[in-house]
Amino acid sequence: xxxxxxxxxxxxxxxxxxxxxxxxxxxxxxxxxxxxxxxxxxxxxxxxxxxxxxxxxxxxxxxxxxxxxxxxxxxxxxxxxxxxxxxxxxxxxxxxxxxxxxxxxxxxxxxxxxxxxxxxxxxxxxxxxxxxxxxxxxxxxxxxxxxxxxxxxxxxxxxxxxxxxxxxxxxxxxxxxxxxxxxxxxxxxxxxxxxxxxxxxxxxxxxxxxxxxxxxxxxxxxxxxxxxxxxxxxxxxxxxxxxxxxxxxxxx
Length: 252
Ligand SMILES: C[S@@+](CC[C@H](N)C(=O)[O-])C[C@H]1O[C@@H](n2cnc3c(N)ncnc32)[C@H](O)[C@@H]1O
Prior knowledge:
Blueprint: H1 3-15, E1 22-26, H2 32-41, E2 46-51, H3 54-66, E3 73-77, E4 90-96, H4 105-112, E5 116-128, H5 140-155, H6 162-173, E6 176-187, H7 195-208, H8 219-233, E7 237-248
Parallel strand pairs: 1-2, 1-4, 2-3, 4-5
Antiparallel strand pairs: 5-7, 6-7
Helix pairs in contact: 4-6, 7-8
Residues 26-29, 32-33, 50-53, 56, 79-80, 96-98, 101-102 line the site of S-adenosylmethionine.
């Protein structure tokens, strides 16, 4: 588990999401959060992982098969408004790094309403492009890699500060906010947060938008080079601010 997965687990604990529940992981991608949820709900619960991207669902399927958790998970190609009949009455909907990609996040949150039981939770986990380098340190590679991600998100029309908008979006969609919190994803000279894996995952998009040229980036070496840069500068920095907010559908 990386530093952000640990945050996800702690926030799920705090929101009381777990044993015996019926949950949707919206925008499940490769299924990292789906697997965490499937372990939490236990054999008495059930998890639906939904994504619009069939390729991602295949990756998620392999992950859940390998973990021996497929019997308590259904993976569906669907968006926020496409709950299958047998999936209705969710105790909670969880989404990590997905709300910021929605053209209208309030409408997306509203679309979850009918399939959520009264009193059920929505919990969204969004990374903001809020960063803080050590102003004394020279970190050009870190700045470059971050600018690739920022340019990609801008190109896709994503909401770069969705974390700051969580409270407003929940409220406008009709949910009762319980908490919004943020933690820093801090990189030290020794951190092993997998930035190269993230860049490798989005490389087709970076190349398609002309942000990097094909073959320009060696993702095998990237984490090593970033760590070397932090070590040389003795630098600790805030790579990103990670927000999580949760709210309930009113019980009446
Ligand atoms: C950045 S990935 C995050 C994956 C996963 N939640 C995680 O944190 O590991 C965003 C995912 O959301 C999916 N997605 C974007 N918009 C969606 C929508 N309207 N409905 C379902 N999935 C969506 C994308 O296909 C992608 O797999």
